[in-house]
Amino acid sequence: MTAIETVGLTKRFGDLEALADLSLTVPEGELFALLGPNGSGKTTTIEILTGQLEPSAGTASVLGHDPVSDPLAVRRAVGILPEREDPPSFLTPREYLEFVGTVRNLPDVTEQIDEWAERFEFREKLDTLATDLSEGERQRVMLAAAFVHEPDLVFIDEPLVNLDPLMQEQIKGHFREYCERGNTVFLSTHFIEVADELCTQVAIVSDGRLVAECNPQELDDERLLDVFRAEVGATEPATQQVSD
Ligand SMILES: Nc1ncnc2c1ncn2[C@@H]1O[C@H](COP(=O)(O)OP(=O)(O)OP(=O)(O)O)[C@@H](O)[C@H]1O
C-alpha cells in the first residue's frame, strides 16, 4: 500500500515558489529521505503533509487521509518531529511523555516511557527538567515522543543533527528496524551521508523541485553524492557531514 502520495504539490509564499509541482509516491515500509540543500522546500513539504500548511496547488494523501480537508486525522495517525523542537523547558521527560501519552489517548504510558528511555538512553534523565538537559538529550526525548504511540508513519526533520556518533548509529538502527516491521519513516535532511547510508528511497529536491529519485542501496559506481552534485550543483563537502 502507499503511505504517502502527492500530485503537483505547490506552495507559494508571495512571489517565492517554495515548492513547485512535487509529485511523490512513498510505499509503506520505506525508509524515505527528502534530500536537498537549505531552503529547497523540505520543511514546507512536511508541514503540508502533516496538515500544518495548506498547499497553493496540488493534492496529497497520507495514510489515506487528506491533510488539507482532514489535518487532524493525519496528525492522529502519524508521529512528527519538527526540526530543532524541544520538550517544554519546565517539564521533565517523564512528564512530557505522560502528556504526549494523554494527547495520544494511551491508557498508561509507564511501560512505554521506560522502554523508550532505555532504547534512546535517557533513563537516568527521566526526572530532570528539560531546561537542564543537553541538546542531544532533548532530541532523544523528542524522538521518543514521536514514536511512543507506535504510529505507522513518522515524519522527522533533520533527525541526527544533535546526536553523538554512537547515538546516531542507535537511532539509525531503530529506524531500520521500525521500517522492517512495515512502518514508514519520512526523513528530511541536507546530509547526503544520512540518506545514502540509511534510506531505501531518496528524493532530491532543489529550489522546491524534484530533481532526482533513487534507491541509494542500488546505486553502484554512481554514488548519491554524484547524483546530488549533478542535479543540485553542490560542491561543498559540508553536505556530507552528519553532525553540525
Ligand atoms: N512562512 C514562510 N513565509 C515565507 N517564506 C517561507 C516561509 N516558510 C518557508 N519559506 C521559504 O520557503 C523556502 C523553503 O523553505 P523550507 O523551510 O521548506 O526549506 P528547507 O529545505 O526545509 O530548508 P532547511 O534545510 O534550511 O531547513 C525558503 O526559501 C524559505 O525561506
Automatic annotation (TrEMBL):
State the source organism's domain of life: Archaea
Residue span(s) of domain ABC transporter? 4-232
Q: Which GO terms describe its molecular function?
A: ATP binding
Q: Does the record bear ATP-binding in its keywords? A: yes
What keywords sit in the KW lines? ATP-binding, Nucleotide-binding, Transport
Family (UniProt):
Belongs to the ABC transporter superfamily.
- Protein name from the UniProt record: ABC transporter ATP-binding protein
Q: Which organism is it from?
A: Halorientalis brevis
